[in-house]
Amino acid sequence: MTKSFSAPATLSAPTALSDRTGNLWNWIAAFLYLINAILVLSLPIFPSQDGPVHLYYTEVIRDLLLNSGQYGQYFAIKQLITPYAFQYYTMIALETVFTPEMSEKVLICLYLAAFGLGFKYLLESVGRRNTPWVLTSLPFAMHSLVFMGFLNFCFAVALAMFLCGFWLRWVNRLNTRALVIIVLTFLFLMVVHPVPLAIFLSFAGLTLLVDLIAERSNSSQTLLEAIMARRTQIILLFIFGIVGLLWVIMFRTEPSPNAMRNFPKAPQDFGWVHKMTEEVKLWPIVPYFTIPYRAGPVLLIFAAIVAIAAAVPAALRKLPRAAVVCLLTSAACYLLYVFAPVPLNGATYFANRFPIFWVVFLFASAAALPTALPSAHSRFRYAVPVLAIPVALLSLFLQWRHTSATAAELTPTLNAKVIGPGSLGLICSDSARDPIRSYDPHLWLGVHYFRRSKAVLVNAPWMYLPHIMLKPVKASDWDFIDPHPMADYLGAGDVKQLPSSNLAFMIRAGRNTPKIAEATGRWGYKPAGYDNGIFEVYAKPELLPGIAQNPTTASGLRQ
Questions:
Q1: CA–CA separation, 221 vs 223, rounded Å?
Q2: In terms of Cα–Cα distance, which of 53, 83, 85, 89 is closest to 195?
Q3: CA distances (Å), origin 224, targets 221, 239, 455
Q4: Each residue of 230-264: b (16+ CB within 10 Å) or e?
Q5: 307 CB contacts (<8 Å, ≥6 apart)?
Q6: Would you say 121 and 165 are in contact if contact means Cβ atoms under 8 Å apart?
Q7: Per-residue confidence band for 394, with pLDDT thresholds at 50, 70 and 90
Q8: Which of 250, 246, 160 is closest to 197 using CA atoms?
């Protein structure tokens, strides 16, 4: 039996459902996303791991661009345009209206809108419009990397979904308008994040490959004739690939010796079977590891797999090409998490970028198959919303319960007494991560204190990476060391002096431990009178009386 691939209507123009229930799913999905955005905005502060550092770097970049403040003595801008530039420029714009904390929450709400719309556009590009599968995305929108603070990547995921959908719609009928949209979106994606850029190129390449196989199976064209018929698309992808590769090479790096302290010398490798099991349990995707939080999303994935398994045998002789491409992309992203290195190009969590893609493309594949099976689609029309709506509501409730509790724990830090502008300080930590969270909201919590004080963070992270816009003006032995290795370094007997005789204060992130007491006490720093259990300021004794209360505002608007 010869297998062939059919061309779904979406490669020309998506078709709409004939009944009125279709719009209902879109309205319900929009309402659920609106609830999620309201919950985010209602938090006093959004808890994330790296978010405080990005807020701090936003302020530093703005002050350097305006040539104001005291940061210019310690920081400089490496390049104005980098793969991570999007978040900083967007935050600078938002902070002209809102406070930094509110700006971050507004940015997350914008991401939610982008993710929901990008997912909807992808689904409508592979199958019918107004599909109930649009309801499946919300439990995955606020995935673990949002709480890690990787908002550049999160926006890039949404952009990649749109670009993949647009490519499917226009790949066989490219015109000037479509070409301009594809090129501009591709260029914009370059300054947001490179990994989703690579996902799009792989997806687009698979689309052309499946098209070529279909043409060879269903027509008398030779392979060369089929290739020549798609020469414009092939040349375009080739140019995109070269440009993307050169862009990544421009920002290639190796960790600095200081940054190597942040990586374990012998990282534990549980093997590929363990990592495959992790993905099934959604460990790399969910921000909270509790069984109730994971159960609903796992059920949705299981439903998608069942739907695909039920539809494929009946459609084996005429599989929609979009379903094949989405399923292949999903499988590739699933395996990339298993076999890709965790650290790459001087940064960590590289492999963790792929799990969200295997999920969204799995749902897209399930949504694409009913285009060839209208009877099966009709039979199970209400199965997806009946399952997805309760799962989405449960996810919202559990997300709110966990996130609001964490935010309440972090908020008092914003009222801590600040030290003088331009003061030098560092952050150290010896606290273990909460086992139910995939992120550590305590790790860089103290950077809020630096931003509010307009102080200089001596061990500011990641600036050895070329895609981070900032660099230290003068290199030191203390650059780039994360809080945990910094605690070890401060307490080490071979360290004879601090990074600067002007180091005014230290901050403890997380719980107090004997190691922290040793590290701070050894250098003569005393508690500054503020300790909420997860954050404490230590200062030179002569500076303690001069720490003044920082004025705060209840409003989210900048004053």
A1: 6
A2: 83
A3: 8, 20, 64
A4: beebeebbeebbeebeebbeebeeebbebbebbee
A5: 366, 369, 380, 384
A6: yes
A7: very high
A8: 160
Beta strand 424-429 with 503-509 is: parallel
In one-letter notation, the amino acid at residue 79 is: Q
User: What is the rounded distance in angstroms from the CA atom of residue 428 to the CA atom of residue 434?
Assistant: 17
Question: CB neighbours (10 Å) of residue 131?
Answer: 27
Structure tokens belonging to residue 345: 């190009």
The C-alpha atoms of residue 391 and residue 261 are separated, in whole angstroms, by: 41
The answer to whether 253 touches 465, Cβ cutoff 8 Å, is yes
Residue 427 main-chain phi, psi, to 5 deg: -120, 135
Kindly state the helix (H) or strand (E) to which residue 517 belongs, with its residue range: helix 514-522
- Longest pairwise C-alpha distance within the chain: 87
Structure token digits, residue 77: 């801008």
Residues 449, 55 contacting (CB under 8 angstroms): no
Q: How far is the C-alpha of 407 from the C-alpha of 251, rounded, in Å?
A: 35
Report, in angstroms and rounded to the nearest whole number, the Rg of the chain calculated over CA atoms.
Answer: 25
The 10 Å CB-count burial string (b at 16+, else e) for 517-535 is eebbeeeebeebebeeebb
Q: Among residues of the chain, what percentage have pLDDT more than 90?
A: 51
pLDDT in tens, 336-361: 999 888 777 666 788 899 999 999 99
First CA to last CA across the chain, in angstroms? Answer: 71
Pairing between β-strand 503-509 and β-strand 470-472 as defined by DSSP bridges: unpaired
Decide: residue 456, CB within 10 A, 0-12 exposed, 13-18 middle, 19+ buried. buried
Is residue 302 within a helix (H) or strand (E), and if so which, with residue range? helix 291-314
Q: How do strand 535-539 and strand 470-472 relate by DSSP bridges? A: unpaired
So what's the pLDDT on residue 417? 80
The b/e string for 457-486 (b: 16+ C-beta within 10 A; e otherwise) is: bbbbbbbbbbbbbbbbeeeeebbbbbbbbb
At residue 489, the 3 state secondary structure works out as: helix
Q: If DSSP states are collapsed to H, E and C, what string results for 335-369?
A: HHHHHCCCCECCECCCHHHCHHHHHHHHHHHHHHH
pLDDT in tens, 56-91: 999 999 999 998 878 999 999 999 999 999 999 999
In this prediction, residues 131-148 reach a mean pLDDT of: 95
List, in sequence order, every residue forming a beta bridge with 506; answer none if it has no partner. Answer: 426, 538
Q: Left (φ > 0), alpha (ψ -120 to 50) or beta: where does 147 sit?
A: alpha
What's the pLDDT tens digit per position in 410-454?
A: 998 888 888 888 889 999 888 777 889 999 999 999 999 999 999
Tokens encoding 85:
């530039």
| Contact by Cβ (8 Å): 355, 284 | yes
Classify residue 188 as exposed, middle or buried by CB count within 10 Å of its CB (0-12, 13-18, 19+).
middle
- In 177-281, beta strands by DSSP E: none
Question: Rounded to 5 degrees, what angle do the CA atoms 32, 38, 40 make?
Answer: 105
* Strand ranges in 205-252 using DSSP code E only, listed in sequence order: none
Angle between helices 321-339 and 272-280 (to 10 degrees): 130
